[in-house]
Design goal:
The protein has four helices and 17 strands. By secondary structure, it is mostly beta strands. It is globular.
Length: 295
């Protein structure tokens, strides 16, 4: 039988501000695709580093969502709340929400994003070296960089097959990674699997204006296999060989899991699973995939 896998059709919309609990768009249904085809589409990861006290960050979020509108499922966006502007307040009634994660904080520190200033981000984590900041890209350059990446041939294929138990909030996830060529060099290559949640209502500073019911999109919630993931290939690559990794993850009722005044509720209907393959030497992402937690 032909193999099938559920993937999510990404519906990009410009960021909007509303008093409701989620952005007013239809749920994005899962669809079935035939993966027996030899055609593999290259997809691009956009990481938008942001924070609720960053007054210019909503402008970057608009750009990120416009990339989804323009490119559909070929672009995957992650909103990484990290750095000074993402710190929750400890007093008062504003900016109490904590949308940070340990992985997001580690990425911010390692890649030096908030040291340069937000809003900034990375496209496929390309251009990285430890001695430069060329990989930290202002949002005005994202569209150009995404177009460059989309024009390149696909080097690997990712399939995410998952099931979610609504009673126990347990995710069972299988990720199949396939390298399409045996000539890739500079590894090892690693896999990161993480969860995001869309349309979280919380406060935000937007162009100098305090917005109590801002809609935060594509928010990084947690990593399923650690900050830097796990090895796929450490030596020679065997083209077209499928490498399977399996995960079980229990979603907490709130993030941070300990709860408190800074916590935000987990919403299974708004969550996605994201997986991407990257070169552990250059840190460059060569393929990314995303599926809805509940198709």
């Amino acid at each position: 039988m032909k193999k099938i896998v559920f993937i999510t059709l990404i519906l990009g919309l410009a960021i909007s501000i509303s008093s409701c609990d989620f952005i007013n768009v239809p749920d994005q249904p899962g669809s079935v695709i035939d993966t027996s085809s030899t055609t593999v589409v290259r997809k691009v990861l956009v990481e938008d580093f942001t924070g609720h006290k960053c007054t210019a960050c909503p402008a970057a979020a608009i750009v990120a969502n416009s990339l989804l509108t323009a490119n559909g499922e070929n672009v995957v966006v992650i909103g990484v709340h990290s750095g000074f502007f993402a710190n929750p307040s400890t007093t008062g009634t504003q900016y109490l929400t904590d949308l940070r994660t340990s992985a997001g904080t580690n990425y911010d520190t390692y890649f030096g994003i908030s040291n340069i200033g937000n809003p900034n981000g990375m496209i496929n984590r390309k251009y990285y070296t430890s001695s430069t900041t060329a990989h930290v890209l202002s949002y005005g350059t994202w569209a150009t960089e995404v177009a460059i990446e989309l024009a390149k041939p696909a080097l690997a294929k990712l399939e995410i097959v998952s099931s979610y138990n609504t009673s126990t909030q347990v995710l069972t996830c299988n990720v199949n990674s396939t390298f399409l060529y045996d000539t890739l060099t500079g590894g090892p290559y690693k896999l990161i699997v993480l969860a995001t949640q869309d349309s979280i209502t919380a406060d935000q500073l937007d162009a100098g204006v305090y917005v109590p019911t801002y809609i935060h999109r594509h928010v990084l919630r947690d990593n399923l296999n650690g900050t830097w993931g796990e090895n796929l290939v450490t030596g020679s690559i065997v083209a077209n060989a499928v490498i399977n990794k399996s995960y079980n993850y229990t979603f907490p009722a709130t993030y941070p899991a300990a709860g408190g005044s800074s916590a935000t509720a987990f919403n299974a209907n708004r969550c996605h699973i994201v997986a991407f393959i990257y070169n552990d030497v250059t840190k460059e992402v060569i393929q990314v995939e995303e599926v809805k937690l509940i198709p």
